[in-house]
Write a structure and sequence with these properties.
The structure holds 3 protein chains of 3 kinds. By secondary structure, chain A is α/β, with parallel strands linked by helices. Chain A is built from 9 helices and 10 strands. In chain A, a hairpin with a 2-residue loop joins strand 4 and strand 5 (71-72). Residues 1-5 of chain A have low confidence and may be disordered. The longest helix of chain B is centred in the first third of the chain and has 39 residues, at 8-46. The chains are: A alpha/beta, B mainly alpha, C mainly alpha.
């Protein structure tokens, strides 16, 4: 689960995607190294979500390359299910399985996809749920009985239990009110400290400042600027970055 | 007898006569159902314990018995008990109407309850009486929301007029049956009757679907696909 | 007046009614499932045929459908197999199955569609195969969502099996009319039969309610007041 830093887990090259006449990804390129926490910020729009969904091929890009741990994800010969099992995905709306308890939600991946025994899967699930600090009495509850913050933490545990090489976060706190968002961000900060490889799309600038190794500014289908958090957020180079950050600053006042 | 040739023109005319009866029967029945069903719905929502219980029993009974059985009871049992014997057509209207009233009361009960309690509280706060709240606030909205489901119920009533042939009503299906019996061509005339039904039903279903999006209860889609 | 005999005849009819109801429901389920898959996940011809079939069945009375199957189908088959005779009961059962299939297909489609795509995305992201998703995620939820529809459908078939009487199928309603015309106890017999239908309808509803409560999961199914 906890990798040593070093080579690139993920390389994206010149990724392009159009929906109808709208260009959503216009040549996106970047890499994520093992142990890194990379944060993508930018105005709301379909682009950032689509980018993440291309990485595990929930969405098929039009052109470009996605190399995951040396494997060409977009090739026809690859068994995408095996790749998906190694990439964790945390959704904005949690997407927990409604008919399963918190524990069962975390167990089902290891059991059904990785073929672990019920015992092994349970041990792993308990470990993951503890890592996200879920209250013990919530383990047997159904998603409908959990708060938003609890649900999202279960979703993170579900991703962790697969022992992935990288975890993708798609605006994980956007559907939560500020108090619940805090619990989730704390968990994510912890993971970042433990050198879990993370690619996070978020509006939470605070998280970007505290936990990110690098911040990317995404706008109009492209990465316009990237750099260390303090550099990009305090002294942005490009006009577009400046404009976006100013708007965020106005809003958060 | 079998093998008589009937011209298409004659067949269509005969089926059309049957269709007229079908439509008249369905309209009278649905209106009877409305006349009884709406008050029952109001009783079930606002009435006292005993009244509510009686209404529930009424509803449950009429929904738990086949239409054919209702017809037989009206035709045979009712005269014995009440001394009133109805001519076939009105027995048919009564049977279908009573059954429809049970389903309509369900529809109206759910739309009445769907009118937000907050509005009712606000109306009382203005000083309105129970009756005024019902008349000016609840019913207008409840009735409007009920339109798609009500149209759905009408379609069901329209189709079930076919059962009235068992008490001698010469509606559309009975006419088709007659044509089949003299020509020996079931597919032709039952098929033709099916076309008649589809012409009557499909536009209504389509309309109900559109109205459901506009007026139906949000979250349920308004029109129920469920039979009951 | 041998009331025992009357009751026996009615019970014979009840047996046929229950057969029509149960087998009709099961047959309708199987065919309905295929229709639902074609309707929800299919494309092109299969999907169009499924839609046409469903609209045809839902747009015409069940009685008409029973007449077509009961009188039309044997005629059609007799054109190829000279001495084919179809028992009315079989015809009625077939008609009921074909009818129920169209309605059950729509219930299933509703259930499939109500499982949000987000859960399917999450399952895909874990690396599950389509079959695993159907088995572990869709089926358990669809099954629970559909239970009330099944209750409705079973009660509906129980009641509408009475139409088979008009095809001379010896089910409950038919036996009622036969015994009534033999004994002239029309009023009483029909009341009793109405009562029998009511009892069984209530039985079905109560049993299913218990099942619903047993398998209830908050957030997936709703417990009715």
């Amino acid at each position: 689960m906890f990798q040593t830093s070093g080579s690139n887990v993920l390389i994206i090259r010149n990724l392009k995607k159009k929906f109808g006449s709208k260009t959503v990804l216009d040549g996106v390129s970047f890499g994520v190294r093992r142990g890194e926490t990379k944060v993508i910020i930018g105005p709301s729009g379909a682009g950032k979500s689509t980018l993440l969904r291309c990485i595990n091929r929930l969405v098929e890009p039009d052109s470009g390359e996605i190399i995951f741990d040396g494997i060409n994800v977009l090739s026809k010969d690859v068994d995408i299910k095996k790749i998906r099992a190694r990439i964790g995905f945390v959704f904005q709306h949690f997407n927990l399985f409604k008919h399963l308890t918190a524990l069962e939600n975390v167990k089902i991946g290891p059991k059904v996809v990785k073929g672990l025994s019920d015992d092994e899967a349970e041990k792993l699930a308990v470990k993951s749920l503890r890592a996200v600090h879920l209250e013990e009495d919530a383990f047997e509850k159904y998603p409908a009985e959990l708060s938003g913050g609890q649900q999202q933490r279960v979703a993170i545990a579900r991703a962790l239990a697969m022992e992935p090489d990288i975890i993708l976060f798609d605006e994980p706190t956007s559907a939560l009110d500020p108090q619940l968002a805090g619990e989730v961000l704390d968990v994510m900060r912890e993971l970042a400290k433990k050198n879990v490889t993370m690619l996070v799309v978020t509006h939470e600038i605070g998280f970007a400042l505290n936990a990110a190794d690098e911040v990317l500014f995404f706008y109009n289908g492209k990465i316009w600027e990237q750099g260390k958090p303090r550099e990009l957020l305090y002294s942005p180079q490009r006009e577009e970055t400046k404009a976006f950050l100013k708007r965020i600053a106005d809003l958060s006042l | 007898m079998i093998g008589t040739m009937v011209s298409l023109d004659t067949a269509v005319r005969m089926l059309f006569e049957g269709a007229k009866i079908t439509v008249v029967l369905s309209i009278l029945s649905i209106l009877l159902g409305l006349l009884i069903g709406l008050p029952i719905a109001i009783i079930e929502t606002y009435g006292g314990k005993t009244l509510r219980y009686v209404a529930m029993v009424y509803e449950g009974t009429l929904r738990g018995i086949p239409l054919l059985a209702i017809y037989m009871v009206i035709f045979f049992s009712m005269p014995l008990i009440t001394g009133i014997g109805l001519p076939a057509f009105w027995a048919a209207v009564l049977g279908l109407g009573l059954r429809s009233s049970a389903y309509q009361s369900q529809i109206f009960r759910s739309t009445i309850q769907a009118v937000g309690e907050g509005q009712v509280e606000a109306a009382y706060s203005l000083g309105m009486s129970k009756l005024e709240v019902l008349r000016y606030i609840v019913l207008p909205q409840a009735l409007r929301m009920a339109v798609p489901a009500w149209m759905n119920e009408y379609v069901i009533v329209l189709k079930d007029t076919s059962v009235a042939l068992a008490v001698g009503i010469v509606e559309l299906t009975r006419q088709a049956q007659y044509l089949v019996s003299i020509t020996g061509e079931p597919f032709h005339y039952y098929g033709l009757a099916a076309v008649f039904y589809l012409i009557m039903v499909l536009p209504l279903t389509y309309l109900a679907g559109i109205l459901a999006k506009k007026y139906g209860i949000k979250g349920t889609g308004g029109v129920s696909n469920v039979r009951l | 007046m041998d009331y025992g005999f009357i009751l026996l005849q009615l019970l014979k009819g009840l047996k046929v009614t229950l057969e029509l109801t149960i087998l009709g429901f099961i047959g309708g389920f199987v065919l309905g499932f295929l229709l639902a898959i074609a309707r929800t996940y299919g494309r092109g011809l299969p999907k169009a045929l499924a839609i046409a079939y469903i609209e045809l069945i839902r747009g015409t009375p069940m009685l008409l459908q029973l007449y077509i199957i009961g009188f039309g189908l044997p005629l059609l088959i007799r054109q190829h197999f000279e001495n084919f005779v179809m028992s009315p009961t079989l015809a009625a059962m077939l008609g009921i199955m074909l009818n129920s299939a169209a309605y059950q297909a729509e219930y299933m489609r509703g259930a499939f569609n109500s499982i949000e795509s987000g859960q399917i995305e999450a399952a895909l992201s874990l690396g599950m195969s389509k079959w695993q998703i159907i088995r572990h995620i869709i089926f358990p939820q669809a099954f629970r969502i559909m239970l009330p529809s099944w209750t409705n459908e079973m009660v509906y078939l129980l009641k509408y099996s009475s139409l088979a009487m008009l095809l001379a199928v010896p089910e409950l309603m038919y036996m009622a009319s036969v015994t009534a015309s033999e004994t002239f106890l029309y009023a009483q017999i029909y009341l009793i039969v109405a009562g029998i239908y009511l009892v069984f309808a209530t039985l079905i509803i109560q049993v299913m309610r218990i099942v619903e409560v047993r398998i209830h999961i908050p957030g997936v199914t709703m417990i009715k007041r």
